[in-house]
Amino acid sequence: MKISKNTISLNQLLDEKYGRKGDPKREKWETEYEAFRLGVLLEEARLKLGLSQEEVAKRCGTNKSYISRVENDATDMRMSTFMRIVQQGLGGHLEMSIDLGEG
């Protein structure tokens, strides 16, 4: 497969649009992207288990609209709430890692 000379990497695109890592605009984008990923992970796990948002909400003591909001925009969520959704709502275990970047 031949790659076009006009092809750029995702990091190059982000550098152009939001600045380099460490720039406030880029950091804001990175934070929002990570929150989006968390929401998608929760939704995928819920669907894999065949559970509705309402079922997950009942299991972890919240309501359907909150689960929907978390799945669609997880930016305003406490870690304890996220863990409760994973553990009680989905019956799962949360695994985390910290990436300190390159070099």
CATH superfamily caption of the domain at 22-89: lambda repressor-like DNA-binding domains
Judged by helices, strands and strand pairing, the structural class is mainly alpha
Low-confidence stretches: none
Strand fraction band? Answer: under 5%
Helicity level: 55-70%
Biggest sheet record: none
Rg over C-alpha atoms, rounded to the nearest angstrom: 17 Å
Distance between the termini: 31 Å
Number of beta strands: 0
- CATH architecture of the domain at 22-89, please? Orthogonal Bundle
Task: Write down the CATH class of the domain at 22-89.
Answer: Mainly Alpha
Mean pLDDT score: 88
H and E order:
HHHHH
Q: Give me the number of helical elements.
A: 5
Approximate shape: elongated
- CATH fold-type name of the domain at 22-89: 434 Repressor (Amino-terminal Domain)
Question: What can you see in these coordinates?
Answer:
It contains five helices and no strands. The protein starts with 9 loop residues before the first helix and ends in a 14-residue tail after the last helix. It has 103 residues and is mostly helical. It has a domain at 22-89: Orthogonal Bundle (434 Repressor (Amino-terminal Domain)). It has helices spanning 10-18, 24-48, 53-60, 64-72, 79-89. Helix 1 crosses helix 2 and helix 3 crosses helix 4 (64-72).
